[in-house]
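During the reporting period the student researcher (J.K.) took over the structure-prediction task from the postdoctoral fellow and processed the backlog of single-chain submissions. One of the processed entries is reproduced below for the supervisory committee.
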Amino acid sequence: MTEKKVWLITGAGRGLGVHLAKAALAAGHAVVATARKTESVTDALGEHDDLLAVALDVTDPAAAEAAVQASVDRFGHLDVVVNNAGSFQAGFFEEMTAEAFRSQIETTLFGPVNLTRAALPQLRSQRSGLVITISSTAGIDAGGEFLTAYAASKFGVEGFMEALAPEVAPFGIRTMLVEPGFFRTELLTPQSTRYAAASIADYADRSASTVAAWQSMDGKQGGDPAKLATALVKLAGLQDIPARFAAGADAVSVFQTKARTLLAQADAHRELSGSLAHANA
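J.K. obtained the following structure tokens:
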């Protein structure tokens, strides 16, 4: 992007969202930075002529519409929408309450659905725009424990964005999924991660050790979110925007392993798979 663009970023009060806002501003763009409380945005980013802080709970469709309208009212248009707000409901599926599981889906699947739905009429009227959605390697491969709710939401958002892309492409709107590996954001802090209460004896030992393992990673992840933010601003300026971006060497490894696994699964029962057509087909 050589010209000034308007970015709308969710979850911009901390973590990757803050770095994204800083990188976009540094590149000369305008930023609408949203968070549940605007004070967290101003505390993290300060004041800037090209910065607008907007309160947004991504689970509220009306609030998403208001955030888009505020962007257009302030800057006249909207160019890049970043679905970044996140949370982590961690735990074994049997020990997780239905409310906790649903909360995960509401935030990290319906959150992007709500904001994207709100933004598309504006982008379509402009015949241009980019929707970036921060997914996860857990949306590519759900191996590992405590990931049932989180992976369900991320697999969902992968399908949503992949299916949306050809629907909106005729209007000049593009999409990009970002699958980060382990980055030193605030996802694993107590503010973002909620652990299911241990309640089933069969899981007790594994639950205790898995909680300890996740907690031990907080602040020690290898990925640098500032570098990721800069990379995403760079990618958003390309003529040929990737449908997916594997963020980090660990993410590349997940992509490659998953691809090999799928090929092996396709080949494992190829003859049986090919025998299922009607005789007169």
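The committee noted the following: The mean pLDDT is 93.
J.K. will present the remaining backlog at the next meeting.
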